[in-house]
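Hi R.,

As promised on Friday, here is the backbone we talked about, encoded as structure tokens. Could you run it through your design pipeline when you get a chance and send me back a sequence?
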């Protein structure tokens, strides 16, 4: 069923080499003698569907290779990772682990919410970006703080109020809703608070432009003042020292609070004005670009101007469809899966490729220039975020590259009929 769907979604020009040869007889392929053997015609589908059939016992077997498992094994993980247990034979060499489920991250539970993170220590390949999944109950605060990395966020559920003041004393206060973004440049102080309108508080994804970033290593208001002599604090504010009798003796980090009044009543008038480029962006209201097999929308520094080091593409891939073969010229990609079942093969040059599977709540990491695709291998929509450590979204489409190259050049490499090459789409299809 799954393969039928997949092929139904593919135009002739992208079907397998076998199908193309059978279907197109109108022009002759180059009669070159290959200097290397042809690639195998055998398909290497993901075994996701068969591993998840009722009563199925996943086994590491593909064709005549492999064998069954005699010893103990974590079957639920096999069912989620069929392309790790029985990889396509096109996988070769070694690419460091590129999958991290937030489920495996230590969770920091506090009164008012929780936070769990992934950084380079969890997934060593992810050197440029790190992520945090955080929950704040209604009224709860992620306390006033700052850090050395820039912070980008996508609201997953509920709503929050964000506050900030920049280096010129200009303030910013906004409410954000599911699918909206915020961004605080490195060193700019801010706070987050759960609202109580669309849900009890909020949950969000945070991404930082440094793979070493740790959410447990931020500059917190309370931690700082707990480490300054009291008379210095009193002198700083020119107040009596007794007024500081109840400041916390250690950090709060996340703590409960009252739901704030409506935004208009909560704003603090600022003689220095508001920040010129808003720290939040109503990405949920941006219109998606429909595509053959899904849709996409992008927020980068052309629309969300302050976000100069982290940008996003929100991608939907329909069942049977895939995000086409492509790469990003110089940008590391940190992806977060919101829905569905996906497979991705990362190609690292030098005959090195490895396939991974992703579910909702998982992170993928693809180093700059690595070729890849994201295939929907389930029965439901795949929705995910492609997040990059850069300012402008860029990708190179394999099909568009070949469509815009003299066809005899492409034919000399791939032995496809010229009319097939000439039918390749000169526009990016993105999701097919
Ligand atoms: C796909 O898997 C089979 C084993 O089932 C293998 O023999 C074949 O060579 C693989 N196909 C490709 C294109 O590598
Ligand atoms: C949130 O709203 C609900 C329903 O209006 C209410 O019962 C609850 O007390 C509110 N929570 C907070 C923390 O204010
Ligand atoms: C996907 O849909 C097909 C056809 O309806 C069904 O046979 C299969 O069991 C489904 N797979 C999963 C994992 O739900
Ligand atoms: C080529 O791609 C564009 C952009 O995605 C799409 O609108 C168009 O229908 C495609 N053309 C063909 C012939 O598939």
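Update: got your reply. Pasting your designed sequence below so it's all in one thread:
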């Amino acid at each position: 069923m799954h393969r039928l769907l997949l092929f139904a979604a593919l135009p002739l020009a992208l079907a397998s080499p076998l199908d193309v040869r059978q279907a197109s007889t109108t022009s002759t392929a180059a009669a070159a003698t290959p200097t290397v053997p042809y690639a195998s015609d055998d398909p290497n589908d993901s075994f996701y569907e068969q591993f998840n059939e009722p009563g199925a016992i996943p086994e590491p077997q593909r064709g005549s290779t492999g064998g069954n498992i005699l010893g103990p094994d974590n079957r639920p993980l096999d069912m989620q990772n069929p392309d790790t247990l029985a990889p396509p034979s096109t996988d070769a060499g070694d690419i460091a682990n590129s999958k991290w489920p937030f489920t495996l991250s230590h969770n920091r539970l506090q009164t008012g919410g929780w936070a769990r993170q992934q950084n380079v220590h969890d997934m060593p390949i992810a050197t440029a970006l790190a992520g945090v999944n955080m929950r704040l109950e209604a009224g709860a605060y992620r306390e006033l703080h700052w850090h050395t990395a820039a912070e980008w966020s996508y609201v997953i559920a509920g709503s929050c109020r964000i506050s900030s003041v920049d280096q010129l004393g200009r303030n910013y206060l906004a409410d954000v809703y599911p699918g909206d973004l915020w961004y605080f440049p490195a060193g700019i102080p801010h706070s987050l608070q759960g609202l109580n309108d669309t849900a009890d508080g909020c949950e969000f994804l945070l991404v930082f432009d440094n793979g070493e970033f740790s959410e447990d290593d931020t500059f917190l208001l309370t931690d700082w003042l707990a480490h300054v002599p009291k008379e210095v604090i009193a002198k700083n504010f020119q107040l009596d020292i007794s007024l500081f009798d109840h400041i916390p003796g250690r950090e709060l980090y996340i703590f409960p609070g009252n739901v704030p009044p409506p935004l208009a009543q909560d704003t603090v008038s600022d003689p220095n004005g508001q920040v010129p480029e808003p720290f939040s962006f109503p990405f949920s209201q941006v219109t998606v670009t429909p595509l053959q097999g899904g849709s996409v929308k992008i927020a980068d520094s052309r629309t969300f101007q302050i976000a100069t080091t982290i940008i996003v593409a929100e991608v939907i891939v329909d069942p049977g469809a895939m995000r086409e073969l492509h790469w990003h010229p110089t940008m590391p990609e940190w992806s977060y899966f919101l829905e569905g079942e996906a497979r991705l093969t990362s190609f690292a040059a030098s005959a090195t490729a490895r396939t991974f599977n992703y579910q909702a709540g998982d992170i993928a990491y693809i180093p700059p220039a690595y070729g890849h695709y994201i295939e929907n291998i389930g029965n439901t929509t795949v929705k995910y975020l492609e997040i990059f450590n850069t300012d402008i979204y860029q990708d190179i489409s394999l099909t568009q590259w070949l469509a815009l190259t003299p066809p005899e050049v492409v034919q000399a490499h791939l032995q496809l009929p010229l009319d097939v090459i000439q039918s390749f789409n000169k526009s990016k299809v993105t999701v097919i």
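One thing I noticed while checking it: Residues 138-139, 196, 259 surround 2-acetamido-2-deoxy-beta-D-glucopyranose (ligand 2) (CB under 6 Å).

Thanks again,
M.
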